[in-house]
Amino acid sequence: MNNKRDIKSCRADFPLIANSVVHNKPLCYLDSAATAQKPQPVIDCINELHTSLNANVHRGIHFLSEETTARYETTRKKIANFIGANSEREIIFTAGATASLNTAAHSLCQMMLQKGDNIVVSTMEHHSNIVPWQLACARYGAELRAIPINNDGSLGNYENLIDNHTKVVAITQASNVLGTRPELKPLVKAAHSVGAVVVVDGCQGVVHKKQNLKELDADFYAFSGHKIYAPTGIGVLYGKEELLEKMPPFLGGGDMISSVSLTKGSTWAELPLKFEAGTSNYIGAIGLGTAIDYVEEFDLEEVDAYEKALYDDFTAKLTSRVEGVTIYGTTAQKSPVCSFNVEGVSSYDLAAIVDKLGVAVRSGQLCAEPTMDRFGVRTMCRASWAMYNNTADNDQAITAIERAVGMLRR
Description:
Blueprint: H1 15-19, E1 21-22, E2 25-26, E3 28-29, H2 40-52, H3 63-83, E4 91-94, H4 97-112, E5 118-122, H5 131-140, E6 143-147, E7 166-172, H6 184-193, E8 197-201, H7 213-216, E9 220-224, E10 235-239, H8 241-246, E11 257-261, E12 265-268, H9 282-295, H10 300-321, E13 325-328, E14 337-342, H11 347-356, E15 359-360, E16 362-364, H12 369-374, E17 380-384, H13 391-408
Parallel strand pairs: 3-15, 5-6, 5-7, 7-8, 8-9
Antiparallel strand pairs: 1-2, 4-10, 9-10, 11-12, 13-14, 14-17, 16-17
Helix pairs in contact: 2-9, 3-9, 4-5, 10-13, 11-13
């Protein structure tokens, strides 16, 4: 018996979604791929922590510190279970996915990258899963290789790119532009066959589908809390314990040390604290734990199907009611993201006009300039959905887009 909540009941839990008015219009928020709104339990959690339980973790022996530390470490265990990690020792708290990917890139490449080696990414990556690897390649004299994108937005052939000199394969679980969900298991297998490490950007994946990292067998997995209804400024880096043990720390400071001597040097704390230098965002981390509790009130497979139905409804209405629409990324396996352009219409102008009608969509390069280059455009508009959206949002957005296009084509 499925005792999960009805997905349609969640909208009332998000105050900003349920109650906001923008330019005297009801807010239609279709920008959740950039950041998701927060449900009331997460808001209440953050307020509670700030008003009645705020003390630095791992440092004090007084009540507030011990209670905050307990909730912080309970969240670590919760995340390990949520994504299918082997142990909470494999869960590192960071400032977000960008910090997670930079941590992996810096520490991994310091340990294993040499001149003549290569790192493989894909052309559809977010800049945060390109630039850290570019910096590492420049630092150590390695080559950066890019897997191409097919016309439908699917991942192109990578067999000739991965070889015995490949040390890292960094790949998105779901493109923030195309929505494409690459088939990762064959890629992981190909990388592991030559001894390469696989790093997965899970930002657009973790919020829509249940994860099982034991089954996926990726070596690292990064995501941001604010994509999954948690506060900003908190993220997670999962890494296989045997690799984390070998890697040097990324940042130095308090909490990540075992001992510090001016004459004998320093030694590092046990995992995962080895990678958590300084005062952590413990408020954000505990808020992330509350967000995960909230998400698990629903069946994620049902959520995924619901969001996909909203995507299908929107794209059908967009292409039938607006002439000259190009949608980028049309593969069957994709997250609820629709990036598009309208012939003869600036994506910035379109987004600015629909905003005046209460509709929030993203426009620009979407932190993915190589993807723009691949499709021969400078910018795109992007609509993206979360569990709190509904078909009324789609109707408001399509009406606004029709009106904007009509004004811009005069």
